[in-house]
Amino acid sequence: MIKKLRIKFICVNMLFVTCMLAILFGTLTYFMGRTIAKEQTAELHRIAEEPGKKIRPNGTNPSEEYVMSNFTLEYGPDGKLKAFGSGGFDLSDEEELAALYDRAMAENDADGVLKDYSLRYYRAKTPFGNKVVFADTHAERATINHLIQSCAMLAVVSFAVFFAASLLLSRWAVRPVEIAWRQQKQFVADASHELKTPLTVIISNAELLQQPGYDETQRRKFSDSILTMSRQMRKLVESLLDLAHLDSAHGAGGFEELDFSSLVENCLLPFEPLYFERGLQLESEVEAGLRVRGNEQTLRQCVDILLDNAQKYSEPGSVKLCLRRSGHSAELTVENPSPELSKSEREDVFKRFYRRDAARTDSGSYGLGLPIAKAIVTRHNGKIGCGWEAGKIRFTVTLPTI
After folding, report:
1. For residue 400, is pLDDT > 90?
2. pLDDT: is 63 or 392 the higher one?
3. CB 3.0 to 4.6 Å from 275: which of 20, 280, 291, 301, for a disulfide?
4. What's the pLDDT tens digit per position in 368-381?
5. In the prediction, which pLDDT does 66 show?
6. Which residues lie below 8 Å from residue 239, measured CB to CB, with a gap of 6+?
7. Cα within 13 Å of Cα(290), Cβ side
8. Which helix (H) or strand (E) segment is 322 a member of?
9. How far apart are CA 244 and CA 238, in angstroms?
């Protein structure tokens, strides 16, 4: 899938580059041809107005003798067609010259190109009728052909350069998709693994319930096990739904102005007996009057996750929650005693289904709490981080105040 996406990216990019190069070089060739044609016509006009004067095209060295390759046809007072010019034209065939003159006079425009003769012409009035000045277009066409060849070579080189750049850019552009794809596959694998164990227990106990020979006490034990596993599955599914909802949420829908200080204080009350039962001290320091814009339910869930995570994984000692103003933000920190965590471990705690001790399942944790908290904070345009210092792990949430 990623390979196909890269190929598609390269193809679209090269199609765009090809169109741009074609438009650029086509426009350049077109206007260059018009410019040359305009200059040639202007030269023919000057030759017609001042016959015999040496014409020096733009860019010609003034020290060089130059006369534009041309010839003129006109009828004199005696009614005979006269031909004179420069550039080595054969002006001896009077019938061909007369046909050429008539052909130029038959054209609708006073100037133009006779393609079958490869001549550019210009008609001018004389006291005895008209005269027509002709110039060879081979040099003009050679210039255009040379320009086309140069543009073609430059286009090939540009195409090769852009193709090489597209190969490199495709890796960079597709990398976020590749990372998301790997994370999604890992997420599905982890979710399947987490669901597999309770499902196995439920199925095994259900099969035992169907078998005869077990007394009521044993059957109650089987049913209690099914109920316990079912509740764990429901908790896991609810967490997965919370993550899916937060991932799909856009904008600030459902946000309102909240007293964040009061919200945090209310979250502390239900945890005090829980901390007491585990022999932990819960200390708090909440600055009053901090207001934020957000969703009350999800922010409450975020604080609950941090407090629940602290009581589950704290070593004996005290857990401290602190809420204070920091610049234009509200800074919430929750710290508890903990073994040292490396930098990679502090980053991994926000990954889905990550548990530092994968074998530890008695806490009922699936490694989804902190990822949900991170998704909530991100949706509120805030930041969440994890640090460790002096035997304590600290989670810090920063939200913009109003």
Report:
1. yes
2. 392
3. 280
4. 888 889 989 998 99
5. 44
6. 366, 368, 369, 372
7. 26
8. strand 318-326
9. 10
pLDDT band (50, 70, 90) for residue 299: very high
* Identity of the highest mean pLDDT range in 53-67, 179-193, 328-342: 328-342
Tell me the C-alpha to C-alpha distance, in Å, between residue 203 and each of 196, 211, 215, 220, 226. 10, 13, 19, 15, 8
Q: Please give the single-letter amino acid code of residue 252.
A: A
Tokens 């003159």 locate to 101
- Residue entry with tokens 């996406």: 5
Taking the C-alpha atoms of residue 155 and residue 151, their distance in angstroms, rounded to an integer, is 6
- What lies within 8 Å, CB to CB, of 213 at 6+ separation is none
* DSSP tally for the chain: helices H, then strands E: 9, 12
CB half-sphere exposure, 400, CA atoms < 13 A: 8
Can you list the positions of beta strands (E) in 30-100? Answer: 70-75, 81-86
> What is the chain's percent helix, strand, coil content, to nearest 5?
55, 20, 25
CA distance 27 to 263: 66
Where do the DSSP E strands lie in 93-142? Answer: 111-114, 119-126, 129-136
Name beta bridge partners: 283: 320
What is the Cα Rg of the chain in Å? Answer: 43
Judge whether residue 260 has pLDDT over 90: yes
Q: Are strands 318-326 and 281-286 parallel, antiparallel or unpaired?
A: parallel
> Which DSSP letter does residue 15 get?
H
C-alpha span between 9 and 13 (Å, rounded): 6
> How far apart, in whole angstroms, are the C-alpha atoms of residue 342 and residue 356?
11
Residue among 397, 230, 394, 379 at smallest CA distance from 303: 397
Global pTM value: 0.55
- pLDDT band at residue 53, thresholds of 50, 70 and 90? low
State the helix-helix crossing angle for 138-210 and 2-49, rounded to 10 degrees.
170
Residue 334 is predicted with a pLDDT of 94
b vs e for 342-360, b when ≥16 Cβ sit within 10 Å of the residue's Cβ? eeeebebbbbbbbbeeeee
Q: Is the pLDDT of residue 131 over 70?
A: yes
